[in-house]
Design brief:
The complex is a heterodimer of chains A (about 300) and B (about 450). Chain A is mainly alpha-helical and about 300 residues long. Chain A is built from 14 helices and no strands. Chain A has helices at about 1-5, 10-50, 70-75, 80-110, 115-130, 130-145, 150-155, 170-195, 200-210, 215-225, 230-245, 245-250, 265-275, 280-305. In chain A, helix 5 crosses helix 8 (about 170-195) and helix 9 (about 200-210) runs antiparallel to helix 10. The longest helix of chain A is centred in the first third of the chain and has 45 residues, at about 10-50. Chain A is flat and about 70 Å long. Chain B has about 450 residues and is α/β, with parallel strands linked by helices. Helix content of chain B is about 50%, strand content about 15%. Chain B has 22 helices and 11 strands. Chain B has helices at about 10-30, 30-40, 40-45, 60-75, 90-95, 115-120, 125-130, 135-140, 140-145, 170-175, 185-195, 210-225, 225-230, 240-255, 270-275, 290-295, 335-345, 350-360, 375-390, 395-400, 405-420, 425-440, and strands at about 50-55, 80-85, 105, 150, 150-155, 155-170, 200, 280-285, 305, 320-330, 395. In chain B, the strands form 2 sheets. In chain B, strands 1, 2, 3, 6, 7, 8, 9, 10 and 11 form a 9-stranded mixed sheet that branches. Chain B has a two-stranded antiparallel ribbon with strand order 4-5. The longest helix of chain B has 21 residues, at about 10-30. Classes of the chains: A mainly alpha (about 300), B alpha/beta (about 450). The interface of A and B includes residues 30, 62 and 254 of A.
Chain lengths: ~300, ~450
């Protein structure tokens, strides 16, 4: 019985290996263009940034003096870096929770059936279509201390005492920027959540209704758990965005007044390009990368553990 | 039969793999033909040298475009192409370093700007060009000095300017006010305007740099020219009482006294100009680069006057900040240095001075008689003042100080204006920044 099978093994193995090899080669050909682009535009700059962070390069001199971990040691004693990082933490917490909560509430409200759903979707999504700089300029005008709509409205309803230079007051500048970011981003969360809601099992919702669950209970115990994958994705995305925030801050306040709205990315830009300390700026960008990676990893692990 | 028209899996894989590989090969080999075509066209290119100029005049600087057109017409063998760059500081180092930058760059003249490029070997030394083209006799001394780093000249400074007080003549006439002769008179005048329900001085510091000019005015008038030069050179501390006073008066006392519009830190430089244009504010402490806008009826209907900010101390003469807006620098890798020098020679010739003054409302670094040009009275006054007393004028500090010092100035003044920092704390921080820069060898010695 074993005689007929014996010759099959040697004849099949080389044929299989050759075909597998050909497949592997073809696979590499498919992957290669994207891989080369990734290596060139992501890995190479990243490795170069790591190298620059170990030098005192000013961005112009041909010589890049190796300083080892000197820039990282300097970071530890840099009060402005800690202040900027703290602003990032505030940004991440408020700027992550708020647009997701707003998007979730709006999404569920529309999902439960409202007339003009498409119009609402478009209206909510419009800020996402606008470039970050455009969003910043629009809100800049709204906050304008002399001609701004916000102060005009406050004055027109007798709340003159609340009218102020929103972006020039250290107490209100960061919250004003956060409102801008939330307005520009909640539409994205809303659209993704709306897409996720299409997969929510209606039978479960109906069963819960029959069992006597009220609207809030159905929302918390039936709908939200079924959106967990979508919410995890959006949260991780927003979390990373919160650590990388740059455009809105740069356009609206340049980190001011003083350093009241300085975040790691604007501080990195300042050190690297305005103060000609590219090596130190690279070290700051490494901090930004590591912090956002750690935060995202912890969050995703926590979600996985819950599931 | 239908089988013969189908592409087999193997054929599909081969075809797509071939396309991928082919695309890559094409991408790699595309470099060679470009290089060859460049080499092939070298001969005709040599007949007409191209000079690429990056400047910061903006896309719609018609007067500058006209100068370029005049040059191209007069020099058929050279083609100058001007490109306005909005964020030149962000790109110039990388562009020059990569050999993809301009042949000529119009850039700020300070050690934190052109000085960085010069020390990195990205700019061409111009000492020889100065003597070859007679610039050493024609160009004003200050325009060369401010573009000289470590004893080598790299550029020609342009846009001579100074900072002082512009005022709305209509408002002054209506209120019976005259130009103040002392600091106390100025404060009393501002108080009168405030009592009359006006904004005495428009000031917007959201952009951060305007406070640097205000500080320059008060530093010059409080410490005097010589002491300020020593401080900028790191020889006198910036937390000296004269500089504390120069912070205290405009950023603490005047804010408390309400001599400015509200929310200074939230108002931009442009918006503070609007307050002056529309007559909401009676005075404006800024530079002569605004003369063009202040004398154009479309932007400012009321007539505008000017005076230097009066002496802060009776024993120290005024030293209003004077300097250069920017300067022209030739890249070390300029494809045709001679053509570049020829263009600069043209820009700073006596015939083109008219275009700078009348077209652009800017003062080139040449000895000029204001009466020879059709210019506003304000620009004539500026030119006469520069001709008469440029040597006694002070310094625009941020043009001469290193980056870390400027950052401390700009952030710190916002904090002082906002009340979260005292004048003394800011002065101490400025001195610490200066010490750090001196240690790093980034301080320019302007005392010689």
């Amino acid at each position: 019985m074993s005689a007929p099978t014996a010759p099959l093994t040697p004849s099949l193995t080389p044929a299989f290996s050759a075909r597998a090899r050909r497949k592997a080669v073809a696979g590499w050909f498919f992957v290669l263009p994207a891989l080369l682009l990734y290596l060139f535009f992501v890995i190479y700059p990243f490795v170069t940034s790591v190298y620059y962070s170990l030098t005192d390069w000013d961005g112009a001199q041909p010589i890049k003096r190796f300083v080892g971990l000197g820039n990282y040691q300097k970071l530890l004693g840099d009060n402005l870096m800690w202040e900027a990082l703290w602003h990032n933490v505030i940004w991440v917490i408020i700027g992550t929770i708020s647009p997701i909560v707003i998007g979730l509430l709006l999404g569920v409200l529309l999902w439960t059936g409202t007339r003009g759903r498409i119009v609402f979707r478009i209206v909510y999504f419009i800020p996402v279509v606008l470039a970050e700089v455009v969003v910043a300029i629009i809100l800049n005008w709204i906050y304008h201390p002399i001609f701004g709509a916000l102060n005009e409205i406050l004055r027109s309803v007798g709340l003159d005492s609340l009218a102020r230079g929103w972006l020039g007051d250290p107490a209100t500048a960061l919250p004003a920027l956060l409102v801008t970011a939330i307005w520009g981003y909640y539409g994205f969360c809303f659209v993704i959540i709306m897409a996720g809601l299409q997969n929510v099992d209606i039978d479960l919702v109906e069963a819960a209704t029959i069992d006597g669950a009220n609207g809030w209970q159905r929302f918390i115990y039936i709908i939200v758990p079924q959106l967990s994958h979508v919410l995890t994705m959006i949260t991780a995305f927003t979390l990373i965005g919160g650590f990388n925030v740059f455009g809105i801050v740069f356009v609206m306040t340049q980190g001011g007044p003083g350093t009241a709205t300085q975040v790691i990315a604007t501080y990195t830009y300042r050190r690297a390009f305005q103060m000609s300390e590219l090596g130190y700026g690279a070290a700051l960008s490494m901090v930004m990368t590591i912090v956002s990676l750690i935060a995202s990893y912890i969050f995703i692990r926590l979600r996985e553990r819950q599931e | 039969m239908s089988h013969s028209h189908l592409v087999s899996r193997r054929q599909f894989l081969l075809a797509t793999a071939g396309i991928s590989a082919g695309t890559l090969l094409a991408a790699c080999t595309a470099v060679a033909p470009v290089a060859q075509s460049g080499a092939g066209s070298a001969a005709p290119a040599a007949e007409k040298a191209k000079v690429l100029v990056w400047d910061q005049f903006g896309e719609d600087a018609a007067a500058v475009d006209a100068m370029v057109a005049k040059f191209n017409e007069a020099n058929p063998n050279i083609e100058v192409v001007r490109e306005a760059q909005a964020a030149i500081r962000d790109v110039i180092r990388t562009a020059l370093d990569a050999g993809a930058g301009p042949d000529i760059v119009y850039y700020d003249t300070g050690p934190g700007f052109a000085g960085v490029l010069a020390r990195a070997g990205l700019l061409a030394p111009l000492d020889q060009a100065y003597s070859d083209h007679g610039w050493d006799k024609r160009i004003l001394k200050i325009a060369r000095e401010r573009c000289t780093f470590d004893g080598v000249t790299y550029g020609i400074g342009n846009e001579l300017e100074f900072v002082g007080v512009f005022y709305n003549k209509r408002i002054f006439d209506e209120k019976g006010l005259t130009e103040p002769k002392t600091h106390d008179e100025f404060v009393s005048l501002a108080d009168k305007l405030k009592t009359a329900g006006m904004t005495p001085i428009s000031f917007g510091d959201q952009d951060k740099w305007p406070a640097g000019h205000t500080f320059s005015v008060f530093s010059g008038n409080s410490a005097g020219k010589e002491k300020l030069a020593k401080a900028i050179s790191g020889e006198v501390p910036f937390n000296d009482e004269d500089f504390v006073r120069a912070i205290q008066i405009p950023f603490v006392d005047w804010v408390k006294a309400g001599l400015y519009n509200s929310d200074v830190n939230a108002v931009t430089y442009d918006d503070s100009n609007l307050l002056f244009y529309n007559g909401t504010a009676a005075m404006r402490l800024t530079g002569t680069w605004m003369i063009g806008a202040y004398t154009t009826p479309d932007t400012m209907a009321d007539p505008v006057g000017f005076f230097f900010y009066p002496a802060v101390r009776s024993d120290v003469p005024i030293a209003p900040p004077a300097g250069l807006g920017s300067g022209y620098f030739v890249a070390k890798a300029a494809k045709s240095p001679e053509a570049s020098f020829k263009f600069l020679d043209f820009l700073f010739s006596d015939t083109i001075a008219k275009d700078w003054l009348e077209g652009q409302s800017m003062i080139p670094p040449l000895k000029l008689n204001p009466e020879d040009y059709k210019i506003s009275d304000l620009l004539k006054f500026t030119l006469n003042a520069l001709n008469a007393s440029a040597d006694q004028m002070g310094y625009n500090i941020d043009v001469l100080t290193p980056d870390n010092f400027n950052t401390m100035m700009f952030d710190g003044f916002q904090e002082v204006i906002g009340g979260s920092k005292t004048a003394q704390q800011q002065a101490d921080d400025l001195e610490a920044a200066m010490k750090e820069a001196k240690q790093a060898g980034k301080v320019m010695d302007i005392t010689q």
